[in-house]
Amino acid sequence: MAYLSVVSSHAVNGVAAIHSGLLITSLFKNFYEMTPEKFQNKTNGITPRRWIVLCNPSLTQVITEKIGKDWPTHLSQLTQLKQFVSDKAFLQQIFKTKQENKGRLAQYVADTYGIKLNVGSMFDIQVKRIHEYKRQTLNLLHVITLYNRIKSNPNAAFVPRTVFFGGKAAPGYHTAKSIISLICHAANIINNDPIVGDKLKLVFLSNYRCSLAEIIMPAADLSEQVSLAGTEASGTGNMKFMANGALTIGTLDGANVEMAEEMGMDNIFIFGMKVEDVDNLRRSGYDTRRYLNRLPELKRCIDQIESGYFSPQEPHKFTDFARNLVDNDRFCVFADYEDYIRCQNEVSELYMDWMKWTEKCLHNIASSGKFSSDRTIHEYAKEIWDVKQVEIDLNPPKE
Fold it and tell me: Which of 11, 13, 19, 263 would staple 367 via disulfide (CB 3.0–4.6 Å)?
């Protein structure tokens, strides 16, 4: 079907630079060689009217007071905010809006699930479709690693975290449903452990949807974009988090690549293999047990899942899930685990310095102008659809 679409279409595009590159170097390589003029890139975008102005009015006000009111329709104007990166008073305003938005999400969680959250903790969020390639499992292994560290040394210094997951699984996708179930079972153990207390909380946000995302996006301190390099087409949640001042931990995949180019590598946490590294690993023979034997923290996590530590009422509930991960780790969770943990340690260290953290938040906001859907649609209209822009003179609303 895809091949027929390429043949019958006058234009073919990916939705991020890395995605478009993979189309012409692998997926549709032969077609590209025959008709290279067909192939383009159109990086996705988000609408700032909904994903900043509507869902984050306090941040909108802070920005407007600094650079005027035209930026929601000319998002590139956000670059003007970079001149205020050393303005402590402005950084305090950005920090305050984030705390207010975290309070709103914490209230939603308290009202909906009866879980009391530490608003001073880092709000670490991964919300998206549940799928193996998006690697919610990798994120969960980090959560379990943190839990084990607290249990092993309760008196050690620890940066408090609240880790949120959200998303839906396809109806027949058993593994994805198992991931959701494992997250919920782990949350039940972690959240009720008195030794852990407020140092770590795990929350699965059920029925993830746009109206809930409007509460989530403004509240995030850390955005998890951890797909295996070469598997994510683009992503738009990453852009929504960025525009609302969350820092990103992610691989060089999808739109993360262009986000890093816009904000600078100093303002994003990049870890893991690149596309060529993944290809090399698979060609050389990927053996998960090499990582299990070398990384005791990883092995402990897998042993706990397999043995029923997080499902004591059903000890074998996740045995098959754990064994399948060992025997068929299609998306190289084990291979990226060590570097992911290293990068997460850097995240925790930076979070202890609110000013440096907020400076990077401001860089993210100020660098998000490229990712407006206005720019994307303009490119489609001009370069693919051949649609001319029409100016509409709207009369002001009547009193």
Answer: 263
